[in-house]
């Protein structure tokens, strides 16, 4: 009897067996519809044999093997298996996390031609004189005239011109007057097409170094300061691989960074089929992108972390831009690091991978010093005469602030306005004020479901929890003592925006935070406004700091930077440093010199001293020393067991029990369970347990044994997850 072993989206780490008389070894990787409980599910066939895990009379028959959907290729299955093994997460869940929902929905609609086509006038078509058109067919004349005006149309548009037009298009096609091309998605961002630049010496060295080993696996750390022209290096290396008919995968941390990069790559490679994969696509678009990549039609795949699971039969290069960015790590479900998986994948396919950053993660930086990665430096800004901005600190202990803004910053903003240059004011808090306080009884508005304070949003006149989304009306009086004198305390983006509008009534001010950037259009609008100089002052959160290139920006002000200086999370300082370097890096990217003003209570903190000199290496050395002494990554490998329960005691009790399940052995360190920093979240209380080792291999061995035991603990009131290489505590 032929049995197929199927991976299903079920939280159990095993395959499910079904009878499938018509299955052959060639069916591995295919999608199958199988009964599960009372319903049907779509799974992936991972193995075929004539042996089942359960007795044959208990087996059910598979409903159908879906042979019209291209199978998941073996290398991608291998990648999924690696993820399942490394992150200790059920294989079915891993696969279903990566495969587009549309392909695994119970009725996958798979049309033959999914993308729409354009009929584009060829040179022959262009050259056709209207008078030479045979016959006296008016529609034919009309259609050709129309094509000469617009260049290309879809068959749907043609139909709107005339019922007969689609048929005529086929005729034109046969004559060679038009050609059928894939429709390019519309994009409206209009940055000037990037000309091929005269490369800087550093760029040339970088490109030559990589080119010398273009056909083999290497992890290149492209450590280039902000504005050093890393994008140009990506473009040139990409071009080499496109010439070899290979596919290039480019990962970016944020969906907001895709439009700009997409535009740059499209204008450099106008005839190359590029697809952009990110979370805002609808399920059909995502499936189409996936299939185009799988068929090898899409040569450039640009996307956020999920794009790492795209099938790419001709993969020749992976680029991970802003490799240090925490967004590459998924924080729920399969807690994978897209950057780390990208490295695995590059090695698996024996292709080079480029990790680019002005502020590499300490892990990557360390790997480059030990020789595991190869480091390439870009030390200078690419644009002639552009230099790194000058950084000043305003000691907020010794000056009076007006609405959170120092006199120095106000003066600098005024000067920048007069010079018709742009400024950014950064504050990492959205909303109006982070706290609502009663002056008489010191009551604070807090979230009943989380250990957090409710943030005042004045525009919508409500209070909101930024962790769980809970919203309520602004109370007219203190719920505790009835006093009506409630005070918004502290500053958020909305409040700073209001204050700036008061100080600079003639300035055009634009706020950019998560409240007003939902949707791709919103971002395009913002980026266009900035590039067309329709904005003078931007007020925003770190959303604005990442990777953008704003040539007219010359002043950056930073408020409330200190908040993460003395945090419990050992990565907080590394992140703050990277963030501030990135923020500062937005200024003075063209020929206007940039200036950065940071308001802080600790201007003499080593972090600020290194930042002043733009000295990433100096600070990285300090942090590495600390990590070495405390045995933290990159000097050790970690895993975190998270538990959540209605009461913290239950979670701690579970973790204590879990810590005794497996004898850890000499090289594994198990810490005591502790409550999470955000102890209460969405009505549940959370704690975690850290496991650490100097050896990744030893840690993995331990985790495998441990995970099996954890899975066998009967379900109680505790929900647990295992996070390998955790990035947040
Ligand atoms: P980053 O390294 O921060 O990603 P970008 O790639 O965005 O830097 O480049 C910064 C700016 O420098 C861009 O405006 C880009 O067009 C410009 N640039 C890059 N290379 C060169 C070059 N060789 N000559 C002149 N300008 C360049
Ligand atoms: Zn009160
Ligand atoms: Zn909440």
From TrEMBL:
Entry EC number(s): 5.6.2.4
Organism ancestry: Bacteria, Pseudomonadati, Pseudomonadota, Betaproteobacteria, Nitrosomonadales
InterPro entries per the UniProt record, alphabetical: DEAD/DEAH_box_helicase_dom, Helicase_ATP-bd, Helicase_C-like, P-loop_NTPase, PriA, PriA_3primeBD, PriA_3primeBD_sf, PriA_C
GO biological process: DNA recombination; DNA replication initiation; DNA replication, synthesis of primer; double-strand break repair
Catalytic reaction(s) noted: ATP + H2O = ADP + phosphate + H(+); Couples ATP hydrolysis with the unwinding of duplex DNA by translocating in the 3'-5' direction
Role this protein plays: Initiates the restart of stalled replication forks, which reloads the replicative helicase on sites other than the origin of replication. Recognizes and binds to abandoned replication forks and remodels them to uncover a helicase loading site. Promotes assembly of the primosome at these replication forks.
GO terms assigned for molecular function: 3'-5' DNA helicase activity; ATP binding; ATP hydrolysis activity; DNA binding; zinc ion binding
Organism expressing this protein natively: Nitrosomonas communis
Enzyme class: isomerase
Listed name of the protein: Replication restart protein PriA
Entry-linked CDD domains: DEXHc_priA (cd17929), SF2_C_priA (cd18804)
Pfam families: DEAD, Helicase_C, PriA_3primeBD, PriA_C, Zn_ribbon_PriA
Binding site for Zn(2+) 1: 438, 441, 478, 481
């Amino acid at each position: 009897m032929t049995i197929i072993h199927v991976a299903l989206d079920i939280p159990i780490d095993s395959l499910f067996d079904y009878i499938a008389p018509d299955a052959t070894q060639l069916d591995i990787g295919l999608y199958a519809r199988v009964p599960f409980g009372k319903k049907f599910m779509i799974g992936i066939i991972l193995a075929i044999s004539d042996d089942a895990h359960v007795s044959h009379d208990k087996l059910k028959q598979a409903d159908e093997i879906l042979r019209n959907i291209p199978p998941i290729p073996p290398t991608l299955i291998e990648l999924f298996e690696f993820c399942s093994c490394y992150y200790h997460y059920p294989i079915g869940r891993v696969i279903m996390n990566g495969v587009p929902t549309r392909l695994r929905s119970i009725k996958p609609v798979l049309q033959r031609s999914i993308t729409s086509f354009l009929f584009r006038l060829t040179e022959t078509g262009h050259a056709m004189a209207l008078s030479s058109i045979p016959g006296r067919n008016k529609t034919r004349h009309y259609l050709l005239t129309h094509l000469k005006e617009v260049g290309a149309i879809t068959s749907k548009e043609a139909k709107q011109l005339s019922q007969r037009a689609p048929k005529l298009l086929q005729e034109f096609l046969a004559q060679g007057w038009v050609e059928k091309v894939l429709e390019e998605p519309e994009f409206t961002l209009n940055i000037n097409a990037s000309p091929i630049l005269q490369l800087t010496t550093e760029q040339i060295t970088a490109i030559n170094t990589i080119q010398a080993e273009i056909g083999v696996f290497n992890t290149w750390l492209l450590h280039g300061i902000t504005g050093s022209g890393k994008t140009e290096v990506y473009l040139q290396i990409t071009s080499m691989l496109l010439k070899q008919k290979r596919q290039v995968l480019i990962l970016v941390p944020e969906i907001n960074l895709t439009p700009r990069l997409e535009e740059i790559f499209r204008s450099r490679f106008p005839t190359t089929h590029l697809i952009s994969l990110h979370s805002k696509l609808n399920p059909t678009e995502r499936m189409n992108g996936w299939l185009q990549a799988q068929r090898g039609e899409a040569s450039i795949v640009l996307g956020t972390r999920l794009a790492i699971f795209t099938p790419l039969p001709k993969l020749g290069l992976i680029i991970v831009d802003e490799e240090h960015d925490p967004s590459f790590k998924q924080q729920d479900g399969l807690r994978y690091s897209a950057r780390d998986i990208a490295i695995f994948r590059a090695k698996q396919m024996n292709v080079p991978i480029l990790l680019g950053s002005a502020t590499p993660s300490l892990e990557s930086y360390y790997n480059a010093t030990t020789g595991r990665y190869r480091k390439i430096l870009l030390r200078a800004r690419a644009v002639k005469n552009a230099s790194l901005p000058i950084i000043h600190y305003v000691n907020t202990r010794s000056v009076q602030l007006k609405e959170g803004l120092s006199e120095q910053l106000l003066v600098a903003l005024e000067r920048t306005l007069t010079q018709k240059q742009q400024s950014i004011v950064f504050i990492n808090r959205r909303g109006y004020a982070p706290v609502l306080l009663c002056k008489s009884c010191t009551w604070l508005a807090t979230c009943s479901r989380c250990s957090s304070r409710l943030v005042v949003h004045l525009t919508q006149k409500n209070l909101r929890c930024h962790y769980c989304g809970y919203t309520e009306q602004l109370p007219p009086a203190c719920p505790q003592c009835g006093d009506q004198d409630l005070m918004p305390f502290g500053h958020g983006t909305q409040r700073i925006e209001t204050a700036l509008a008061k100080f600079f009534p003639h300035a055009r001010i634009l706020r950019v935070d998560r409240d007003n950037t939902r949707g791709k259009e919103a971002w395009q609008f913002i980026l266009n406004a900035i590039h067309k100089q329709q904005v003078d002052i931007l007020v925003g959160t770190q959303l604005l700091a990442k990777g953008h290139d704003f040539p007219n920006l010359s002043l950056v002000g930073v408020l409330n930077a200190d908040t993460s200086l003395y945090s419990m999370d050992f990565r907080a300082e590394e992140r703050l440093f990277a963030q501030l370097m990135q923020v500062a890096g937005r200024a003075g990217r063209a020929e206007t010199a940039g200036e950065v003003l940071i308001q802080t209570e600790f201007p003499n903190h080593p972090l600020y001293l290194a930042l002043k000199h733009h000295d990433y290496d100096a600070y990285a050395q300090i942090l590495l020393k600390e990590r070495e002494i405390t045995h933290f990554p990159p000097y050790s490998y970690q895993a975190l067991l998270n538990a959540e329960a209605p009461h913290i005691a239950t979670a701690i009790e579970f973790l204590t029990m879990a810590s005794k399940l497996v004898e850890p052995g000499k090289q594994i360190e198990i810490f005591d369970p502790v409550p999470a920093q955000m102890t209460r979240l969405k009505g549940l209380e959370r704690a975690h347990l850290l496991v650490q080792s100097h050896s990744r291999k030893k840690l993995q061995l331990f985790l495998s044994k441990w995970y099996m035991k954890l899975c066998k603990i009967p379900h109680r009131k505790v929900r647990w997850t295992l996070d390998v290489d955790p990035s947040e505590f």
